[in-house]
Amino acid sequence: MAGLFITFEGPDGAGKTTVLSAIAEQFKTAKRTDILVTREPGGNQISEAIRNLILDPKNTQMDVRTEALLYAASRRQLIQETIRPALAANKVVLCDRFVDSSVAYQGAGRQIGEDAVFQMNQFATEGLTPDLTVYVDVPSEVGLARIKAHRANVDRLDAETLSFHKRVRAAYLRLAKQFPDRIVTVDATQPVATVIEQTMTLITNAMKQR
Ligand SMILES: Nc1ncnc2c1ncn2[C@@H]1O[C@H](COP(=O)(O)OP(=O)(O)OP(=O)(O)O)[C@@H](O)[C@H]1O
Ligand SMILES: Cc1cn([C@H]2C[C@H](O)[C@@H](COP(=O)(O)O)O2)c(=O)[nH]c1=O
């Protein structure tokens, strides 16, 4: 498949959304029409509806496997409706979260098994794998403190225990070790301008190499 598929991963509050919006703005200023920015869960009408269902703090009854399946369903719709067509049109797709999130949050955080969650997602993705993943790393305590300090609405996942968030981060660190050719870590305890600059360098280098 043509195009370039770049994903952004990290624990809650690492700063992915902040970094990705700054980068999208820079590409917009440069009048780049070949860049598509999207997010998971969400990015289209159906996937945003699934997002609302998953993240609604009222849905305390949601079974952990139901949650994993809903993330995969949202992903499938985004791939078919948005990601694959954009890659086929030779675009650079910048996606806030992808399968690594499910492996970290559902596999490790919810403890339903990292490999089981990865395998289940293969059905949804038919093997679609990012060319590059920027892993924005932050200790769980720091990420959660950022969310508490700045965010008005804490969603169902943000509200999980510290030990849940620590399992998520540990899984991300394992994934980064397991896939060193795909996953590049950026230290998000640095000032936000530095995180943006380092991430932009990774993206532009990947764009030059394609
Ligand atoms: N490097 C940084 N240093 C200090 N604060 C930061 C940094 N990056 C982001 N923040 C702040 O932390 C908060 C969370 O950032 P952001 O929403 O971008 O995180 P996120 O990774 O997208 O989180 P989530 O996955 O939970 O949506 C925001 O208020 C943002 O301004
Ligand atoms: C894709 C995906 C996401 N999650 C979690 C991670 C976050 O807590 C929320 C998404 O919210 P964000 O503020 O847009 O990052 O959902 C998950 O548990 N599993 C996934 O596959």
From TrEMBL:
Family note: Belongs to the thymidylate kinase family.
Protein name, per record: Thymidylate kinase
InterPro entries per record: P-loop_NTPase (IPR027417), Thymidylate_kin-like_dom (IPR039430), Thymidylate_kin_CS (IPR018095), Thymidylate_kinase (IPR018094)
A single cellular component GO annotation: cytosol
CDD domains, sorted: TMPK
Occurrences of domain Thymidylate kinase-like (ranges): 8-196
Reactions performed catalytically: dTMP + ATP = dTDP + ADP
GO molecular function: ATP binding; dTMP kinase activity
Gene source species: Secundilactobacillus silagei JCM 19001
Positions with a binding annotation for ATP: 10-17
GO biological process assignments: dTDP biosynthetic process; dTTP biosynthetic process; dUDP biosynthetic process
Function according to Swiss-Prot or TrEMBL: Phosphorylation of dTMP to form dTDP in both de novo and salvage pathways of dTTP synthesis.
Coiled coil stretches, renumbered: none
Domain of life: Bacteria
EC number, UniProt record: 2.7.4.9
